[in-house]
Amino acid sequence: MLIRKATENDFEGIWPIFQAVVSKGDTYVFSPQATRRDAFEYWFGPGVTSYVAELDGRIVGMYKLMPNQRDLGSHVANASFMVSPDARGNGIGAALGRHCLEEARKAGFKAMQFNFVVSTNTGAVELWQKLGFKIVGTLPGAFRHLTLGFVDAYVMFRLLDESAQ
Ligand SMILES: CC(C)(COP(=O)(O)OP(=O)(O)OC[C@H]1O[C@@H](n2cnc3c(N)ncnc32)[C@H](O)[C@@H]1OP(=O)(O)O)[C@@H](O)C(=O)NCCC(=O)NCCS
């Protein structure tokens, strides 16, 4: 599997994965009806660097990396991940996570923060904990899950040091 920087030409591969993820209404705040424009701005908007995972020439997942805050908070990174439903459970999410930590460290970020990990998204919570993130806060009822209703969201955080892996 190849993980490389995304270009706008990759959008045709990114869009169906984005759509499959947000249509479930269980992990991201996007409306299940989010548009191509919403998706394009999310992955290629100002200040965003996106990466894709390619397997046999097909995009199977992606992540984006950006500063979590402007100016005096810009030393903390933020990132988001999506893997194609038919490619999950094969280590792609973990590989993207490790790649992201390394890219963030190389870019000089001091820490990484996820602002909104849906508490019922146990696969993601477990993955981020394995990659060294801790739950540092709980936002009560902050996510309106499409089938479960109001559920908590977590803020997850880790420092980036030489042991970032
Ligand atoms: C979260 C996501 C990126 C994981 O991608 P993936 O390629 O399936 O993950 P991996 O195969 O690398 O799994 C790595 C670890 O994550 C955890 N994990 C992933 N999916 C899981 C699941 N459905 N149930 C339990 N644990 C899971 C496990 O700890 C797993 O380790 P293991 O293989 O040793 O058991 C993917 O499920 C996804 O795109 N989900 C929808 C979007 C999303 O939730 N993004 C993250 C928002 S915070």
- CA-to-CA gap between the ends? 18 Å
CATH architecture annotation name: 3-Layer(aba) Sandwich
Strand content: 35-45%
Please summarize the sheet with the most strands. Answer: 7 strands, mixed
Summarize this structure as a short list of keywords or feature phrases:
binds coenzyme A; 165 residues; alpha+beta; Aminopeptidase; 27% helix; 4 helices; seven-stranded mixed sheet; 36% strand
Task: Describe it.
With 165 residues, the chain is an alpha+beta fold. The chain has a single domain (2-159), classed as Gcn5-related N-acetyltransferase (GNAT) (Aminopeptidase), CATH 3.40.630.30. Helix content is 27%, strand content 36%. A seven-stranded mixed β-sheet has the order 1-2-3-4-5-7-6. Strand 2 (49-55) and strand 3 form a beta hairpin. The chain is globular. The mean pLDDT is 97. Bound molecules: coenzyme A (COA). Coenzyme A is lined by residues 21, 27, 81-83, 88-94, 114, 117, 121-124, 126-127, 130.
